Structures are given as C-alpha cells and as structure tokens.
Amino acid sequence: MSVTILQALDFIYKNTKTKALKILPLEQALDFILAEDIYATHNLPPYNNSAMDGYAVKILDAGKCVKVEHTIFAGDDSSEVLTSGYAIKIMTGARIPEGCECIVPKEDTKECQDGVILPQNLSKGKHIRLCGEDIKKENLLLQKGQRLQAHQITLLASQGISHIKVHKKPRLALFASGNELKMHFEQVESHQLYNTNTPTLLARAKELGCEVEFIGTAEDTLDDLKEHIKSALNSDLIVTSGGASVGDADFTKEAFSFFGMETFFDKVEIKPGKPTAFGKIGNTFILNLPGNPLAATLNFELFGGSIILALSGAREKYLKGIDAKMQSEYRLKKGRISLVPGTFNGSSFEPCKKFAPGMVSPLANSNSYIMIDAGIEVLKKDEKVKVIPLRFSFTTDKQESLL
Ligand SMILES: Nc1nc2c(c(=O)[nH]1)N[C@H]1C(S)=C(S)[C@@H](COP(=O)(O)OP(=O)(O)OC[C@H]3O[C@@H](n4cnc5c(N)ncnc54)[C@H](O)[C@@H]3O)O[C@H]1N2
Ligand code: MOO
C-alpha cells in the first residue's frame, strides 16, 4: 500500500508502543527517558546562606565601625547570633547566622579597631541566598517522558536521588541485503562494494538512543534473508536496507511475509525513498529501507527516527523543524515531496551542491535536511523553510561574536 508521509507517520505513531521500564542508578541514566514524575524532596538552597565572602551585619550599623569576633565557614553548624555593634565574618555558602540582615562583601569594608567599617548604604537581604529560591520542596522537578541529559541529572543529584525509573532503550537489529555488498573488514572484488548502510545506521541508531545489534549482510536469497530475520526477531525494531524494489533479486518482502509480517505500508510518496516499508511481526516492528544509501539514511532519519522516538517513551516524541530561510535560490523537479540535505548555519539553509539517492557522501558534510512540497519547483532566496537537524552542536570554523 502506498501512503503519504503524513499517513506513514500516523501508522508509526498509532502502532508503536512505549517500551517497558527499569530502574537505573543515576550514574547510568544519561540519555534514558524518565518513566516517573520527580518532585523535590529538598529545598535548594537548603538554608539561607551568604553569596559573598564578607560580613554578616545589621542595617542599623551602616557606616559604623563594628567589632568582629567570630567567623562562619561553609559547612559550619554555627549557632552564633548577631547583635548590633558586631559583624560576623562569613564565607560564601556559609549558613546565615540568626539576627543577620544583610551581607557586606569583604572588599566594601575597611579595617578599624577590632573590626571593620561598614558602607553607608546597606539594604535588607543583600547577598543572602534564600532557602528554596532555586528549588522549592514538593515542586514538580522533572516530568515523566523527559530525556535525561546532563542538566536534568543536575536536578536529580541535587535531591540526593540515587535510582530512577526509566524506559528501556529500544533494541534495534540491523542487517543489509545484497550479493554485491561486503563489510569494511572484508576483501572487495571489482564487482563488489562496501556496505555503508549498516555501519551508518548502527552509529545513527546509537546516537538516537538505541541498543543496536548488527545481524550481518544477507545474500539475495530467500533462505539467507529468512535466516537473518529469524536472528533479529527478539528485537523491538528490525531495520534492513536493500531488496525493497521490484528487481529480480528483491526477496526481502517475501522473506518477511514468510514470518507473517503485517504490512502497514510498503511505498511512500517521497523522493528519495519511495520503496520504504513498515510493518510488524509479533511485537517486532520492521522498517525496510531502500538500498540506495542516501535514500536509506534520509528515510531512516524521518521514519526510523520517528519509530525510535515513539518506542522511547519520550514526551516530545515528534520531529520538529527549525524556522529558517533559504540562503540562495534552489530549483528542483516537482512530483513527490522531496527530502533535501544541506547545511543550516543558524539562520539560513543551503542545500548540498550535489546529491542523488545512490550517493554516500552528501550527509557527511550536511547537518540537516528540509522537506519540500510536491508542487514546488523553486524556492527563492530568503523563502521560509523548516530545517530538520541531523546533528547539533552549533559550532563554526571561525570564531564569531557570541553576543
Ligand atoms: N524498475 C524499477 N527500478 C527501481 C525502482 C522502481 O520503482 N522501479 N525504484 C528505484 C528506487 S527509487 C530505489 S531507492 C531502488 C531501491 O532498490 P532496493 O531497495 O531493491 O535496493 P538494491 O537494489 O538492493 O540497491 C540499490 C542500490 O543501493 C546499493 N546498496 C544497497 N545496499 C547497500 C548498502 N548496505 N551499502 C551500500 N550500498 C548499498 C546497491 O548496490 C544498489 O546500487 O531501486 C530503484 N530501482
Ligand atoms: O528511494 Mo529511491 O531513488 O527514491 O532512492
């Protein structure tokens, strides 16, 4: 069945269910999807504390020479009480003593007999970090479905949370098919070429947060394809490339049908990537990508990426484009919706100078792609487009002002 891109994505989201849960220690939780809401159990800061190395003082003592007899360091469990006519020396992070109304930084004071002279203007609360001003106890900190990156791990660590419930990572099995293909660690003859799709998809699936298993390269025979499928059936998603078209050696569909694959679609109105198929055998999803390398990798981004997001348990599970404009005019043949790889520089998008479905080189120097509607033959300079990132990190080869 041939479908539009939107219908294909609908099939993916309607049929794909989030993975089961497991408990992980915080140190191993990077890039997992949180499977529970997290509420703060502690205020942060846990107590009013000094933002400066200086003196804890009273407002009425402004401009006076006050005596200094005690010092409080960060981590001290001090019970000093501040009284008028005195200042207590205090370090950054130390708990504010009772009676203190503000902190005066060390450099704003002068020495005097037995103490320091305070500035004329003091304001209440100055340089005091209040208990709970960063995180309030019982507030919702992180939501179920959030991806745990470094700055979410900060929040969990701040609460002394050692173990959390996360979704298991999608388990993906990969194999390619084609008698002409050899792996990079094998010898190629003059009629053969290296399998680039599998190493690419393996790396990309890992980048997208999957556990990945490489099943091998299947020959273009029904028996060998069946053998490879059988070895991959315990995964959540099998991704194959090649044998998707109508050639005399294209047996992939037949091999999957042997295992009773329910096919949701086997063609998409897209360029490149028309012979992309998606289906299911038991609880294992199947994404059969075309063999042409650029077609396979771009369609893996769009459909593979969406399946992985749907399986992951992520709340933000839909691909999103970034508003940008075309760097220069771009002409194309109208027909099917096209995926065009290129470079987004933070404001504008420039398509790759040279690309075709069978090429392997275009994506190595691209960082994104755009999707162009079927009827469009020209995109003018500055015309608005949506850029779908392939990798970010915003960096540049020449230092620019960051303001
Ligand atoms: N008569 C028709 N022929 C083709 C059609 C069509 O509609 N009618 N569609 C074309 C389109 S579009 C595509 S895409 C390809 C898809 O073909 P397959 O999925 O069957 O892929 P293969 O024939 O196995 O390979 C195509 C091409 O890609 C190279 N390849 C395959 N796998 C890899 C790999 N793992 N690493 C590197 N390169 C790979 C392979 O050598 C071929 O050159 O069909 C068109 N034909
Ligand atoms: O998928 Mo094909 O040409 O559309 O590469």
Automatic annotation (TrEMBL):
It holds the Pfam family MoCF_biosynth. Its EC number is 2.10.1.1. It catalyses: adenylyl-molybdopterin + molybdate = Mo-molybdopterin + AMP + H(+). Residues 173-310 form the MoaB/Mog domain. It is an enzyme of class 2 (transferase). The keyword Transferase applies. SMART domains: MoCF_biosynth (SM00852). GO terms for biological process: Mo-molybdopterin cofactor biosynthetic process. Belongs to the MoeA family. This is Molybdopterin molybdenumtransferase. It comes from Sulfurimonas hongkongensis.
